[in-house]
Amino acid sequence: MIGAPGREVVKALLPGLRRRFDVHLVVCNAENSAGGYGVTRDSGTALIAAGCDALTGGNHLWDRREGAAYIAEEPRLVRPANLPEGTPGEGWRVFRASDGTAVGVVNLLGRVFMREADCPFRTADRVLGALREKCKVVLVDFHAETTAEKMAMGWHLDGRVSALLGTHTHIQTADDRVLPGGTACLSDAGMTGGFDSVIGMDRQAALQRFLTLLPGKLTPSDGDLRLNGALVTVDHATGRALAIRRLEIPYAPAVSGGGARLLRGDEPALSVRLAARAEVERLRARGVTPALALVSVGEDPASRIYLKRKGEACAEVGIEARRVTLPAGTETHAVVERVRALGEDPALHGILVQLPLAPPAAAQAVLEAVPPGKDVDGFHPVNVGRLAAGLPGFVPCTPRGILELLRYHQVPLAGRHAVVLGRSNIVGRPLAALLSRKGVDCTVTLGHSASGPALRALAADADLLVCAIGRPEMVTADWVKPGATVVDVGIHRVAAPDSRTGHRLCGDVEAASVALVAGALTPVPGGVGPMTVAMVAANTVLAAEGAFAPSVAS
Ligand code: NDP
Predict the structure, then answer these.
(1) 121-142 pLDDT, tens per residue?
(2) CB atoms < 10 A from the CB of 350, how many?
(3) What pLDDT, on a 0 to 100 scale, did the predictor assign at position 257?
C-alpha cells in the first residue's frame, strides 16, 4: 500500500470489496503508507478508518521518525517478529474477525538481500508455538526479497498456518495456490498504488536514480491506480485454507460493482495537440508561423506553472510562444497599451492574458484590449457574445477542452440534464452556453454561491455534473446521481502532512467517495487541466488560420 494514492484506492474500493466477497478480516501491509516510506499515526489511522483490521510492516516500517511512537502503541499493528529484543511493537497479535473467528497475524522479515534479522524460519516456529492455544487461523505476511526464500517458508509452514502471503517486491506473482497441507501461498501480493511508476514511485525520478546513482527524491505515483492483494478462504474450524485468489483491481476505470470510469484528459489532449501540429505544418508550408503572446502581470506562482505548460504545448506543436511579463504594480493603462501594441503586431496571431493580474491592473480593461480576432482565450465581449448567440468565435479553452474530453470519451449529452456548478466567465458561464448549444443539446442548470441548499438536490439530478466552484472536495457522493458523469474542474493544493511533499492535489470533488457512485469521473490532476492547455494551442492555430475573420477580426 503506497502513500496517499494507495490509501485513496483502499478507501474507495475496500468497502465494496468487503461487501462483495463477504470479507471477515482485512490485513494490510502499511510499511509504505506514509508518502511511500514508513507508517505514521495519520497513515495508519486512515487505513483503519478505510476498513483495514490489521496492519503489518516490513523493513521500511521505521522510515518515519514520527511513526515510532505509533508503532509502539497501535494495537492493530504487527511489526516483523524476527527483530532484536526490545524493538517497539509486537511481532504477532490475535485479531477477532467479523464472524468472531480468532485470527493470528504474524509478520516476518526475510534475510536474503535484506538487512540482517533473526532467522525467520525459527522465529515462525516460536511464534506458532505461542499461538497454538489461541487460534486455529493464522496469516503470515513474509516481507522478503526473493521468491526462493518465500517459497521455502511456504513449505516450512504448510499445514501449520492458513496463509503465507509475501510482500516487499511490490510486483504481484502468479503462483497463488493452496499447498497440500492446507496453507494458501502467494509469493508476493503486489502493491496498491500507482502502476505508472517504478514499484509505486514516480518513474522519472526512479529512472534518474538508476541513470545517475544520485539519491534523488522519490514520491508516490498516482498514475494508473490499482489495488493488489489476495483473498483467502479458510475453514475456521480447522484453520486450513480452502482457496486463494489473487486480486488485481483497477481503481476507477471500469471497476465492476461501484467504481467510476476514469475520464483522463491526457489522451484526448495529445490528440488535440497532434491535430494542431498537423495544421501548423500546413500553415508553415504556406509561410505562416503561428505565434502567440503569453501576457502576465506580476509573478503569481500558479500562473507561472500554467504559462510554462501553455508555452510547452505551443512549442510541441510548432507555435512560437512569446512571453510578455510585466512587473507587479503596472497600471491598467500601461498593460492595455502593451496589449494593444501586441494586437497590432502582424507577426502575432494570438494573445493570451494570464489571470489574475497583479494589482492595480484591472483584468476586464486588459481583456477588452485584445483584438477579438487574436483572443485565443475567448474572453473578449465580442467572443463572449458570439458564444452566447451560438455564432462562430473563440471559445474559452477550459469549456472547449471539457466538451472535447466528453466527446472523446463518448459521453452522451443530447437531452441529458447538465448541472454546472460555478458561473465564472472563464468556466461555468461559457460551458453552460456550450452545453446548451444546438447540436450539443443538454438541458442546463447553472448553480452558484447564491443557489442555496437547493443546489445539492439539483446536482443530484444531473446526468452530467460539472464542478467549477473553487472549493476543495466540496462535492461529495451525496451530490451525485448514481451513474452520472462528473467533471472536476477545480484544482487545489491542500496540506497532506504525511506525504513527502507536505501537500497533495485535489479538485472540487471528493474523488474517493464520488468514484463509488458516479459512472464516470475526470481525475485531478490529469483530467480537465491537460485539455485546457491543449486548447490554447488549438485556438492559436485557429487564430493563425484566420478562422473567424472577418467576423471577429476587430
Ligand atoms: P471562480 O472563483 O471565478 O468562480 C467560482 C464559481 O463558483 C462562482 O460562480 C461562485 O459563485 C461559485 N461558488 C463558489 N462557492 C460556491 C458554493 N459553495 N456553492 C455554489 N457555488 C459556489 O473560479 P473559476 O471558475 O475560475 O475556477 C473554478 C475552479 O476551477 C478553481 O479551482 C480553478 O482553479 C479551477 N480551474 C481549473 C482549470 C483547469 O484547466 N483545470 C481552468 C480554470 C479554473 P458566485 O458567482 O456566486 O461567486
Answers:
(1) 999 999 999 999 999 999 999 9
(2) 28
(3) 38
Q: Walk me through the domains of the chain, giving residue ranges and CATH numbers.
A: 3-192+227-246 (3.60.21.10), 289-386 (3.40.50.10860), 397-533 (3.40.50.720)
Average pLDDT over residues 93-108: 97
CA gap 76, 45 in Å, rounded: 10
Nearest CA to ligand 1 atom 6: 422
The SS3 call for residue 316 is: helix
Helix (H, G, I), strand (E, B) or coil at 100: coil
Q: Which residue has the cell 503508507?
A: 33
| pLDDT reported for residue 552 | 64
Q: How many angstroms is it from 469 CA to the middle of ligand 1?
A: 3
Pocket test for ligand 1, best of 305, 400, 427, 475 (most atoms within 8 A of CB): 427
Residues 490 and 470: beta-carbon distance below 8 Å: yes
In angstroms, the CA 228 to CA 209 distance is 26
Please compute Rg for the chain using Cα positions. Answer: 28
Phi, psi dihedrals of residue 478, rounded to the nearest 5°: -75, -5
Q: List Cα–Cα distances, 546 to 114, 374, 402, in angstroms.
A: 65, 9, 24
Instruction: Answer yes or no: is pLDDT of 351 > 80.
Output: yes
Q: Which residues contact 182 (CB under 8 A, 6 or more apart)?
A: 158, 159, 162, 238, 239, 240, 241
Q: What's the predicted TM-score (pTM) here?
A: 0.61
**pLDDT for position 253:** 45
* Residue of 327, 290, 334, 325 lying closest to 307 (CA atoms): 325
297 CA from centroid of ligand 1 (Å): 21
Q: How many residues can be counted in the chain?
A: 554
139 Cα–ligand 1 center, Å: 49
Distance between CA 259 and CA 269 in Å, rounded?
24
